[in-house]
Amino acid sequence: MLHMDLLLLDLVIVLAVARLFGALARRLGQPPVVGEILAGILLGPTLLGPLLGETLFGPEMKPPLQALANVGLVLFMFVVGLELDQKLVRGKGRIAVTVALGSTLLPFVLGCGLALFIAGDHVGGDKTLPFVLFMGSAMAATAFPVLARILTDRGMQRITLGGLSLAAAAVIDVLAWTVLAVVVAVAGAGDAEGQWKVLLALPYALVMFLVVRPLLARLVPAYERAGRLTPSLLSLVLIGLIASAWATEWMHVHFIFGAFLFGAVMPREGAERLNHEILERLEQLAVLLLLPMFFVVAGLNVNLRALDLSSLGVLAAILAVAIGGKMLGSYVAARMQSVPSRQSWALATLLNTRGLTEIVILTVGLQKGVLDNELYSLMVVMALVTTGMTGPLLRRVYPDRRVARDIAEAERAALGVTAAHRVLTVVPEPPAEQGPLVDLAATLARVKSPSEVALVHLRPYPSGRLEVGTGLSSELAEMAETLHELEELAGTARVQGSQSRVVSRFATDVAAELPEVVGGAEPDLVVLPAGVPGYAEVRAAAVCRVVTVLSPDQSEAADVGTGPVAVHHGSDAATHVALILALLRDRPLVITGGGRASSLAQRLSKLEVRATAGEAPAGALVVAPDNGTVPGGAHLLVRAEQDADPVDWAAAVTALRTPVPQS
């Protein structure tokens, strides 16, 4: 008998604890679903134990709670289908599909292998096939809604990496739901009636897209005539949604597919305002009330008390397959499409999150008898771990500084502004003798187009305060002469195809003001003579690549000359600078540093670069990594930019051989 007072008390407890733990999860930088599932686990037998847990959430209470949770799941899956942007894959189709396949196939195969290994302990003979397929699909899932929330929280939906991950996740969703539909059909087709009903699933999907979709398009003019979402229009949507969910449940293909399919066939063209109002109404009900109920009820079914040491071994295997298969498959697939290494790892990290989608899949498996309670509990733990690790790991793989840089580039691109590759050069005294230094900066600027060379020259105020009529004219004349010399140097950069500008002024404290000037210019590369006032502060504050021209004779050190370019191969940044100088000045490149140097020299030789491995010859311009020590004979030290990507040598050589337009 249903005790209404106990049901209402359960609702109060579930909603209060779900909101509390969801808020705590959000404060810790985690998606609220993590806190809501933990709340359910804590309310269940794991913490409250059989006595109190069975009193509050006993067998007679779970059916009505599950019914409410299922209604929330219907609304949620409709929202997922409605928000699935089919334009995500456009323009990124080949890369997105390749990454999605890699992110799906490897964990799916590994999951099926693990399922075959443990099947004897968890399922009977007639359930082995659906169990194996189910474990594969559960390992391959990606939580599209949680992924979208993580990207939105960091602003990454506006950058290429965010769009690519959303596109890949959308494809993964389709693949995962397709496999799950097969699993549910196989698991539910135990009798003759079930078998023939399952065959209606494909015709039903065709009817939804070919017949129902055009009919739903009529909602748009009705909405425009009314000027708002009327109760009649919302009722039609809800009736259609629930009818679609009922139809797929009747076919033994679970109600979530009917709800998702109805959302997917809702009109898109010209229906933005209509869909926004529908989402606004339903999300409040689903997200605030019914969906937390679903996740808490999912947690109530987890009993970690029943696990033993053998279960921990199975959990370790599940985590290894889920995390290793997902990340390795995504990374390799992304690299095959020439996505840079750092972005590939970030993509793999994002696609490893499971959250909402995984819990939905696991709940279906439990309801259909494909999973037992022990394995369900272990898989829920896996879903929590993979969701919880995404945010912290993503910040390590792709730091906030890198995201901010990508967002700025995306905003410039949206405005049609092409950002120039800016090389900033600190020009010491006397400016007239710094031609080789500026020539070095202009050569390094040619790595990209358009480019800009900024010449910065600060000079201290003369001793004694400048006052009108007491020597000011001579100081201004001296500054005018300096500006003239700097403009002549700027012409050196313009000849090589770069724009150039001059920043020259008096400074009360050159060492203190120079880092501010350099930082404010936001350069991509700094060419910095060693020993200039403020050198240590500029080098420490710069987040970009820094090339230090060593003393005592900066002009000689900066002069590329006619000899070979030699590099101590200890960092990609130093070797890249040496490669730029060698190719753009048509000089041989000598790489020192043992086996790795020899391997890179051979690789560059195959790219038709005059590169050899060995000791730096006499007369060579010697480039070395800036790692705290100065090798004997070094002329240039190169410190890599923060969050540097590994250099793609083939792409670097191709870019350097592309002619730069002359200004």
UniProtKB/TrEMBL annotation:
<dbReference type="Pfam" id="PF00999">
    <property type="entry name" value="Na_H_Exchanger"/>
</dbReference>
<feature type="transmembrane region" description="Helical">
    <location>
        <begin position="228"/>
        <end position="247"/>
    </location>
</feature>
<feature type="transmembrane region" description="Helical">
    <location>
        <begin position="312"/>
        <end position="333"/>
    </location>
</feature>
<feature type="transmembrane region" description="Helical">
    <location>
        <begin position="37"/>
        <end position="53"/>
    </location>
</feature>
<feature type="transmembrane region" description="Helical">
    <location>
        <begin position="96"/>
        <end position="119"/>
    </location>
</feature>
<feature type="transmembrane region" description="Helical">
    <location>
        <begin position="376"/>
        <end position="394"/>
    </location>
</feature>
<feature type="transmembrane region" description="Helical">
    <location>
        <begin position="282"/>
        <end position="300"/>
    </location>
</feature>
<dbReference type="GO" id="GO:0016020">
    <property type="term" value="C:membrane"/>
</dbReference>
<dbReference type="GO" id="GO:0015297">
    <property type="term" value="F:antiporter activity"/>
</dbReference>
<keyword id="KW-0406">Ion transport</keyword>
<keyword id="KW-0472">Membrane</keyword>
<dbReference type="InterPro" id="IPR038770">
    <property type="entry name" value="Na+/solute_symporter_sf"/>
</dbReference>
<keyword id="KW-0813">Transport</keyword>
<dbReference type="InterPro" id="IPR050794">
    <property type="entry name" value="CPA2_transporter"/>
</dbReference>
<keyword id="KW-1133">Transmembrane helix</keyword>
<dbReference type="GO" id="GO:1902600">
    <property type="term" value="P:proton transmembrane transport"/>
</dbReference>
<dbReference type="InterPro" id="IPR006153">
    <property type="entry name" value="Cation/H_exchanger_TM"/>
</dbReference>
<keyword id="KW-0812">Transmembrane</keyword>
<protein>
    <recommendedName>
        <fullName>Cation/H+ exchanger transmembrane domain-containing protein</fullName>
    </recommendedName>
</protein>
<feature type="transmembrane region" description="Helical">
    <location>
        <begin position="6"/>
        <end position="25"/>
    </location>
</feature>
<feature type="domain" description="Cation/H+ exchanger transmembrane">
    <location>
        <begin position="17"/>
        <end position="394"/>
    </location>
</feature>
<feature type="transmembrane region" description="Helical">
    <location>
        <begin position="164"/>
        <end position="190"/>
    </location>
</feature>
<feature type="transmembrane region" description="Helical">
    <location>
        <begin position="65"/>
        <end position="84"/>
    </location>
</feature>
<feature type="transmembrane region" description="Helical">
    <location>
        <begin position="131"/>
        <end position="152"/>
    </location>
</feature>
<feature type="transmembrane region" description="Helical">
    <location>
        <begin position="196"/>
        <end position="216"/>
    </location>
</feature>
